[in-house]
Amino acid sequence: MPELFGHTRAHVGARHALITPDNHVSSSLPGFSGATAVVLVSPAMGARVAQTLVTFQSGGSARVAAGDAQTFGYVMEGAALVAVGSKRRRLKAGGFFYCPAGLEWSLLSPRKGTRVTLFQKAYAPLPGVRAPRAILGDQSRVKGTPFLGDPVANLQVLLPDEPAFDMAVNIFAYQPGGHLPFVEVHIMEHGLVMLSGEGVYRLEDSWYPVRAGDAVWMAPYCAQWFVAMGKVPARYLYYKDVNRAPL
Ligand code: UGY
Ligand code: MN
């Protein structure tokens, strides 16, 4: 529900951003029909990645032509038939796909209200390393590990950690009270969406209450820290750039 008197939890700054579901305005994007698309993170704000939330009506579809960008998609809710190159599978909530640059992908026959988060970015090839392959998967089949040995912060790494991949997409799950063990400051950029629960995110010198549906952008070197609050685990899906030299 819109908040009173023009108040918003949203903040868009030079080095980080928070956008809440109350702020969403959709864009028309090529290749998508019968769907609304909200571009939450993009180069227009200084990011090097695009994060888009797509909500499909029944009969909607996405057909995205091959290009320089690679796409990771995560089904937040609903179900749909996803094809990446010659691979195809019906994905339900928790399902994900990875489409390398130079391959097309499509999403067909979505259940009404299916919501998908996309992370898209230009691929940086590594000389002598074969480009990544297409992937269709499900988060329930990905083993989690306690982050830095802490059992209240569980990390699932959805994409292979191999030199061919220049992006990682992970799910972090925190028990209430669980938190990042220290304030991170690193060269990697993040795009993030809260999947469930709530907590407080420190971004640079500000602390933001966040909850399911909120999207966050963290530029390289944005100081970051999170603590989970409330009565249910807090989970977020996030992107980071990996495996490439700084120069
Ligand atoms: O992978 C990460 O950098 C992660 N620990 N960052 C974060 O959750 N903000
Ligand atoms: Mn981080």
Outline of the structure:
The protein is 0% helix and 52% strand. By secondary structure, it is mostly beta strands.
What are the distinct ligands in this entry? (2S)-amino(carbamoylamino)ethanoic acid, manganese (II) ion
Q: What would you give as the CATH superfamily of the largest domain?
A: Jelly Rolls
Nearest-integer average pLDDT:
97
What is the rounded distance between the termini? 45 Å
Q: Over all CA atoms, what is the radius of gyration?
A: 17 Å
- Helical segment tally? 0
Description:
This protein has strands at about 10, 15-20, 30-40, 50-65, 70-75, 80-85, 85-90, 95-100, 105-110, 115-120, 135-140, 145, 150-155, 165-175, 190-195, 200-205, 205-210, 215-220, 225-230, 235-240. With about 250 residues, the chain is mainly beta. It folds into two domains: about 1-140, Jelly Rolls; about 140-240, Sandwich (Jelly Rolls). The strands form three sheets. Strands 3, 4, 5, 6, 7, 8, 9, 10 and 11 form a nine-stranded antiparallel sheet that branches. Strands 1-2-18-15-20-14-13-12 form an eight-stranded antiparallel sheet, with no helix packed on it. A hairpin with a 2-residue loop joins strand 6 and strand 7. The termini are far apart. The model has no long low-confidence stretch (mean pLDDT about 95).
